[in-house]
Structure formats: structure tokens, C-alpha cells
Amino acid sequence: MTRAAIAFVLSTGLFALSANNHNFEAEAFMPLPLITDWNAFDSDLQAVKNYGVRTIASDVWWGLVETADQQFDWSYYNTLSDHIINAGLNWIPIMSTHRCGGSVGDNCNFPTPSWANINGNPDNLFQDIFGATNADSFSPWAGDFPYTQYDQYFQAFAGNFASKTNSIPRIDLSAGSAGELKYPSYSNPAAGYPTRGRFQAYSNAAVSDFRTWALAKYNNDSAQVAAAWSGYTNGKPVQSASDILPPCQVTTQALSSGVCAGRNTADDFYSSGYKSQYGQDFAQWYQGTLVKHTGRIAAAAHSRFDSVFGIPLNIKIAGVHWRYFDPVEPHSAERSAGYWDYSSLLQGLKGLGVGVTFTAIEMADNNVA
């Protein structure tokens, strides 16, 4: 775990409670680099245990264990879990189907499996309005392939770790960049914290999905879409299905390519356009896509884990705390990440039988770094 990890846990101040509360318990998260000194790790485990930690959570990197399709090497995680359990602690595995490297604080390089070839199909990638792509994890528009692979990964995990059921109180599921249920809206340094980020809805597959969703809502009639969206035209009124697009009015920079090329005339979606019927529809689809994506992951996890472990499953939601009170573009960073209505998001996740871990709850709602 390293002494630095212990220092981090201590710095939270929570362990001051343990001196006066013998019932105090905490979870600790493993650092990202792999353990190489197991003797030092054992000492670290005893140290955090003495401070009230009862459970250790660690990533289980898909890219490390499935070295080839349907060929799994669990040796590292067998050893890791043995040391944790032998120290008298519980283990929470995080089924990390995203890559490690590129997110804030990442000091590792564990990509998704090379054989899965995430860059081999544009539909696998997230894409912003400028054409920049992101391969932190498979996008929700990548078809059945990633969900099939996740199902096989979960099945193999359950088969390997069934004997440790009594020491695994929960399993966490990765659902996006950094293991969080979100769009990688602020992964690009040009759109990172504390900016509002960028929507990730501009790949051909994403645009097609939004178009299909909008037409289905309005009786497959583009004229009805046009009427509903007449209050905010997104740069051009809807005259046919091809005009049903994600927000184009999010930059005044000239666009020479992409679905919004030649039609972005203002940057007003985050300040006012989101209030329109068009904005509400886009929000419903954009956030709803995350819930649908989670549903497929959760269904695979429940089918493989429930009968073996019978324990809760959790999803992590990112703490996108900046620009919360932005006077012109309130909640803009959250909206780019896919968080428009936390109540409906949580209700959707509840219906999938997953709990929620919320990060950065201690952070201030500032607009700047």
C-alpha cells in the first residue's frame, strides 16, 4: 500500500474518531501502482488496520488479467487478496474495465486489453464537437462487443474468487472514465478542470442514437421534432432528420468538419439553450444513455455475481463540483459529464439494483481551481 497511502488515509482526519469510538470502521483505497514489496505491504495493512480500517478496495484491471480473449491470469490478484484477507481485512474488488492513465492523479499505465482493440472502431470512442476522441473506456455506442466481454470477465472473476466470498462484502463496477459513471468530458487537457468540459456526443454512432431517440419520442416525424424544438433551433431549424443533432451552439470557433460544421453561430447552449425543449430532450437522452449503459453492465454483473457472492454492487459517480454556482452557466461542468438531474439518475440506478459511491463530496462548489 506504501507509506504515502497511509499518510493519505490519516490526512482525512477521520481516524481521530477511532480513539473515542471503538465501533469506528473505514474503507481504504489501494494506490494505483502494483504492489512489489509484499512484506512492506503487510506492514502497511497492519498500520491502517490499527487506525480503524476494516476493508481495502482495489482496482482489478481488466487489461491486466485478460491477456488474450478468454485467457485470464489472476495470479496478482490472488496474491493481493490473500495478503488483505490474511491481515484480517475485507476486500472490495473494483471491476475496472477502463484504462488507468490519463485521468487526474493517475500514475499508472494499464490500458484496456490490446486484443479488444478499442481504437479499431470509431463507434468505440467518445468524441467531442471538435473531433477529439477519448479511449478511456468503451463508449455506450460500441455495440454488444464490450458488454459481452464484461460478462465473460465477471464470470471468470466469480469462478476464481468464489472461495473468498466471506471476505468480499461488496463489488464495485466501473462504468466509464476513471471508473466513474460519466462521460469523459474533462479528460482532454484543453477542457479540463475547472472549465465546463465538452459534451461527448458527436461520433457518428452517438449522433445516430440521439436522432433515433428524438424521432421515436415524436412519432418518427421530423416535422413534430421541428415544432417541439422551434424555440431553440441549435443553429438551424429542423427541416429533416439529418438536422437532429447534439448541441452545436457550444462554441463560436469555426468548425471545418464534423456534424456541426457551418452551423454553430453562437455559444449559448450552456447559458440558455439547455432550458428549451430541445435542451430538455438532449439532457434526457444524454443522461439516460448513461443509465442504459449502466443497466447492461449491471445485468451482466448480477447474473454472474448474485448467485456466487450475494452481496451489494456499487457504481461510482464523479464529484464534478466546479461551476455549480456559475452565474452564467450554472452546473455546466456537471451537464457535460452527463449529470443533469441527480434525482432521476439515482432513481434509474436504484432500479438497476446498484448502490452509489459519490466522490469528492467534501469539495467546495467553486467556479475556479
TrEMBL record:
Signal peptide (from-to): 1-19
| Ranges in coiled-coil conformation | none
Q: Name one Pfam family in it.
A: Glyco_hydro_14
One biological process term from GO is:
polysaccharide catabolic process
| Entry's EC annotation | 3.2.1.2
Q: Name one GO molecular function term.
A: beta-amylase activity
InterPro entries named among the record's database cross-references: GH, Glyco_hydro_14
Family named by the database record: Belongs to the glycosyl hydrolase 14 family.
Question: Would I find DNA-binding among this entry's keywords?
Answer: no
Cell division as UniProt keyword: no
The enzyme's main class, written as a single word, is hydrolase
Listed under catalytic activity are: Hydrolysis of (1->4)-alpha-D-glucosidic linkages in polysaccharides so as to remove successive maltose units from the non-reducing ends of the chains
Q: What is this protein called?
A: Beta-amylase
